Amino acid sequence: MKLKNIFKRKYSFAIFYTILLAIFSTFVMLDALVLKKNVQSVNPNSFFQDEYESATKTITDNSYKDENISVSISEERAYDSDIHIADIKISNSKYLKTAFATDTFGMHIVEEPSKISKRYKAIFTINGDYYGFRDYGFVIRNKVMYRDVARPSGKDSCLLFFEDGSMDIIYERQSNLKNEVEKANKNGNPIIHAFSFGPTLVYNGKKISTSADAEDTDIVVNPRTAIGMVEPLHYIAVCVDGRTPSSRGVTVNELAEYMLNKNCNLAYNLDGGGSSTMCFNSKVINSPSDTGIERAVSDVVYFGY
Fold it and tell me: What is the pLDDT at residue 1?
């Protein structure tokens, strides 16, 4: 009888511990991947209907041109991959915009890029840095600073867009974002956007060594998205298909080499993998790796009114 009670107590504790561990593990997974946190409503971007309507537009299947925005899209085959390229010129940085999923800032809030693009009648759209997957990394969107917490480890290069249409790189653990904002404002050239992903691909017209930022620099091939600047107000956006029999994807160094060959003075790697998405007039024009279905993401970069 005593042995039977001991047996019951022993296994009852084991069962209780297993259940407790399962509950804890489930909560950790939900907290990391699902639960919405630090939610903040965002004023929707303005769409300047009158300016858009009054512009003299020329639109084809792969191009858009008016007095303020020019987008030319092409496709190339390189590195055993399909690469979608957009050459973009704008007359003012106000046409370079960003948007959050459901117009909300916070972790794990997502929406398909084409839906965000359609809401703002964007001419051209790519995925952003998926800031909402983590609770650190600098975030500025449309001149509003949402997060100034540096990434605690690993790659920490941060892409800045300025009001004059130029771009620059800072490193989060070596920088204070509030000070960077104050300095830019004092110089009369405010920061309009800050993206926290990386690594930096090209800087000052040179392909940089990214091995310190990313362990998979020369090894892992993936679908990838990048944006680069030829000169202020002239940009190159690239979306590389991958993880399919017909398109392998690229390494970080291959992407850097490609952006340099496109005459980028500065180029930066945005979120990739299943997130890599390019839209023209709100239609997805690449082949996302999630069985061809676009992934819902936390933010996009777009050009429009």
Answer: 55
